[in-house]
Structure prediction request, 322 residues.
Amino acid sequence: MVAPTPGPVAGDHDELTVGEVAARSGVAVSALHFYEREGLLTSRRTSGNQRRYRRDVLRRVAFIRVSQRVGIPLAAIREALASLPDDRTPTARDWYALSAAWREDLDARIEQMQRLRDHLTDCIGCGCLSLRRCRLTNPDDALGAEGPGPRRLLVDDGPGE
Amino acid sequence: MVAPTPGPVAGDHDELTVGEVAARSGVAVSALHFYEREGLLTSRRTSGNQRRYRRDVLRRVAFIRVSQRVGIPLAAIREALASLPDDRTPTARDWYALSAAWREDLDARIEQMQRLRDHLTDCIGCGCLSLRRCRLTNPDDALGAEGPGPRRLLVDDGPGE
DNA sequence: GCTTGACCTCAACCTCGGTTGAGGTCACAC
DNA sequence: GTGTGACCTCAACCGAGGTTGAGGTCAAGC
Prediction:
């Protein structure tokens, strides 16, 4: 069903068809089209209007999926990828700079999660989760990619309870 | 704008109106309605069909927001909350059991992120991100609440490159 | 030269987590 | 008893991140 059929594969070329990219990356063709529409990928077109990708598209797609997996929205991934050269295959140095930037973001997220883990049980158990002094309710992060809804989590518990 | 207006507040009651819950939790009234429709919250109705919440709804809402913040979908939060007694105010013990279950999930997520962080730079830089042996591409987690799309991240890099 | 599967575009639809607005009711204060 | 603001329901809409399907083209193999 995938590559080793005797169908039309680009075979020995060093450009990849959209189907090949899909098979190798595990991402649906429709998603690759979508990523291209959204400006995360680019492709050359053949005379017959079919997409041909440079091999480094695989690394781009991998970067996209890994980034999404940790909760980074596509818009932010697009911005990050925009720092890569569009006209040539990015070097290891290019990728290094990119991933180093992500590292900071990841560090912050990990720290936030650890804080959450370390205080979840006692905070929920004792009721302070709804108090303004609780560390969990303090939106002190600058990740900018949290979930939907208001940025502040909880603000007040009043005099009661 | 919040509680101390001379408007209609439930005041000294120990039940809360939807507006009071919204003000104290930092969650919009529309979101509270939504949570109730989705079965995450319950309320009593007055003779005039208005919602009245027990005070422990604040802790429920806090739990919902904290959980969402780490990427847990509402459906999973609803299931977790279903383990709380619906007819009485949950005890500290009830909450403890709930948050303990979340802890495991959090531990797994943190570990996954750390693995990602520790291998992101070298994997992307060296190109192994697209290789099947890469640890980042290994979907060995059992979190069940990852992003959309295929669960496997990358499967193959072929003989080239 | 024809078949067949991979490819193309475009529009519609989907889930999630809500928000917005219309049209109407409730309840507290004066 | 009337005004005002908080409340009610219901339906429509939003943005993110895609998928699905219709209708048509391209290209490799026989």
Chain A touches chain B through 60 residues (CB under 8 Å). The mean pLDDT of chain A is 74. The domain at 15-101 of chain A is CATH 1.10.1660.10 (Multidrug-efflux Transporter Regulator; Chain: A; Domain 2).
